[in-house]
Specification:
Blueprint lengths: L49 H13 L22 E8 L2 E7 L6 E7 L7 E4 L11 E4 L5 E5 L5 E8 L2 E8 L5 E8 L1 E7 L4 E8 L2 E8 L5 E8 L1 E6 L5 E8 L2 E8 L4 E9 L1 E6 L5 E8 L2 E8 L6 E13 L5 E8 L2 E8 L6 E7 L1 E7 L4 E8 L2 E7 L7 E7 L1 E6 L5 E8 L2 E8 L6 E7 L1 E9 L2 E8 L2 E8 L6 E7 L1 E7 L5 E7 L5 E7 L6 E5 L1 E7 L3
Parallel strand pairs: 4-10
Antiparallel strand pairs: 1-2, 1-41, 2-3, 4-5, 6-7, 7-8, 8-9, 10-11, 11-12, 12-13, 14-15, 15-16, 16-17, 18-19, 19-20, 20-21, 21-22, 22-23, 23-24, 25-26, 26-27, 27-28, 29-30, 30-31, 31-32, 33-34, 34-35, 35-36, 37-38, 38-39, 39-40
């Protein structure tokens, strides 16, 4: 099977993705990998992007990313104040739509119809206030036919929906009252978003041609980075002033660093087999990988492409930047084995953390300077915590059939799963590996749905052929069972007052609903029938 979130192949019996954590909230062992080439067109011929034909006469008027199609443009004005809203996909088959709903379920605003069942990948750039992710970006594949992103200031919504004639990308306030159409009727969309800068880099494909654009949330500013190439994708800096992007033509890739006007600042690679890069979380450095045959070189430079330093060379498989932007954790494959290293961004102070294992995946725990990594030896998994200098190693588990770990916001607690003899267990421990608490033992499956605060975990377990939803408060001995009897629970959010949880439950292929329940498990009620949750945002 393949992870719906990162696309990596994972064991068929996985309850979560061992690479990215799937939709399990604060995964700390993954770095976004470069997006794959857009898939082959899966439906009939699409119209060309209208704005390419109209841009000369209309760009000053509409300033859309790609298109202005008939009926697709809405007046765009300054967005309203944040509000408590749940975004849901309601309905079945071709009769589906995305709604913005308040916490009573009564104030509903229809945002867009949904007719397709594909996936539109989104990346969003890690920014101040989001460092608990421990990585330079986060990734979401949405649900069938739709995907949504809410900006950190909780005022902006970027929504992708698949309709009969292709994918549409819309910008809106969180209530859906002001809208701008950014992209219309294309075969493929990949959006790289910087909420703080209110900008996004969008890859689109129409038939066999790919183009790359930089635009703002309102569609008022459009910059073409690449047009009518085989493939292109890029990442934007947290402040929105720089873009690093790769362009592929006839099997070769070039890598560029540009400003927000699309002017090239530096050509970082030309005519290589693969090249891509990211900005550090503080926006001061760019880290990029260049592949030439079987050899990969990892570089770091400043945001003007200067002060370039080679920090690693070999068969580099994955890498991740520390939240403060000072270190890089990377994996190198040697034959059939992997080594894990950590190094400063200036190429100094390299430390080897792991050598000669079958698989390894690591990440940083924000606010603690700790590293967590999962290794596989002889088909068995072990999970460790260690200081960046390789000292003070703590073993969380050893010799398991499966497992992984995540940090709660604030980085003071670790929650981790362990699989032994076909059954799963879930544990919570502090950052020093002490004060271990068992949340579930020997169940058929476990999934972390949300970690809304430094001491709360919302999770589901599979037991006796049914799913059970639980809430656990760190420091308390027992968890609270919120609901049971579903096939699965797919998303969960704690309301701002901390009193209720809104969650999605599935009872079969065409039997889904959204519910709310008190944190003590009382007063459960139906919120929206025939619906699944895209995302949620709260004003505080």
């Amino acid at each position: 099977m393949f992870c719906p979130k990162c696309g990596n192949q994972i064991p068929d019996d996985s309850q979560f993705c061992q690479i990215c954590g799937a939709s399990l909230g604060e995964t700390i062992v993954a770095q976004p990998t470069p997006p794959a080439a857009p898939p082959t067109k899966a439906w009939g011929k699409r119209p060309v992007i209208p704005i390419l034909a109209l841009v000369v006469g209309l760009v000053a008027l509409v300033a859309l990313l790609i298109i202005c199609g008939v009926g697709g443009f809405f007046a765009y004005r300054r967005l309203q104040q944040p509000a408590d809203r749940i975004l849901v996909l309601e309905g079945w088959g071709a009769d589906r739509a995305v709604y913005s709903v308040d916490l009573t379920g009564e104030d509903r605003e229809k945002l867009a119809d949904v007719e397709g069942t594909g996936m539109a990948p989104f990346y969003w750039i890690q920014e101040e206030g989001e460092r608990r992710f421990g990585r330079a970006g986060a990734y979401g594949s949405g649900v069938e036919g739709a995907n949504a992103y809410v900006s950190p200031d909780k005022k902006n919504l970027i929504l992708a929906v698949q309709q009969e004639d292709g994918w549409y990308l819309l910008s809106s306030d969180i209530r859906g009252e002001t809208r701008a159409s950014l992209v219309e009727a294309v075969d493929y969309i990949l959006a790289i978003i910087s909420g703080k800068a209110r900008k996004l880099v969008v890859t689109v494909r129409v038939e066999d041609e790919t183009s790359l654009y930089l635009l703002d949330f309102g569609g008022e500013s459009q910059v073409t980075l690449a047009a009518q190439v085989d493939n292109a994708f890029g990442f934007i800096s947290p402040d929105g002033r720089r873009v690093i992007y790769s362009v592929e033509q006839e099997g070769e890739q070039d890598l560029y660093l540009a400003d927000d006007a699309g002017e090239t600042i530096a050509e970082l690679a030309r005519g290589v087999s693969n090249a891509w890069g990211l900005f550090s979380a503080d926006g001061r450095r760019v880290i990029y990988q260049v592949d030439m045959g079987e050899t990969s070189i990892l570089y770091t430079a400043d945001v003007n492409g200067k002060d370039e330093v080679e920090i690693a060379r070999g068969q580099i498989s994955q890498w991740i930047i520390s939240p403060e932007g000072r270190r890089v954790l990377y994996e190198v494959r040697k034959g059939t084995e992997y080594n894990l290293y950590i190094i400063d961004v200036d190429g100094k102070n390299q430390v080897e953390l792991v050598r000669g294992v079958s698989e390894v995946a690591g990440g940083f725990i924000p606010d603690t300077q700790k590293v967590i990594y999962l290794v596989t030896r002889g088909g068995k998994n072990s999970l460790y915590l260690v200081d960046p200098n390789g000292e003070n190693q703590i073993e969380l588990f050893r010799g398991a059939d499966g497992g992984d770990g995540w940090s709660l916001p604030g980085g003071k607690h670790i929650v981790y799963t362990v699989k032994r003899a076909g059954n799963w267990s879930l544990y919570l421990t502090d950052i020093n590996g002490k004060e271990k608490v068992s949340l579930a033992e020997g169940v058929e499956g476990v999934q972390i749905l949300a970690m809304p605060s430094a001491n709360k975990i919302i999770y589901s377990i599979q037991e006796g052929g049914e799913a059970k939803l639980h809430l656990f408060n760190a420091g308390e001995k027992d968890s609270v069972e919120l609901d049971s009897g579903a096939d699965s629970f797919d998303a969960a959010y704690l309301t701002p007052d901390g009193k209720r949880i809104i969650y999605a439950a599935s009872y079969g292929p065409q039997n889904k609903a959204v519910y709310s329940v008190n944190v003590d498990g009382s007063k459960r009620k139906l919120f929206i029938d025939n619906a699944s949750i895209l995302t949620a945002t709260f004003a505080r």
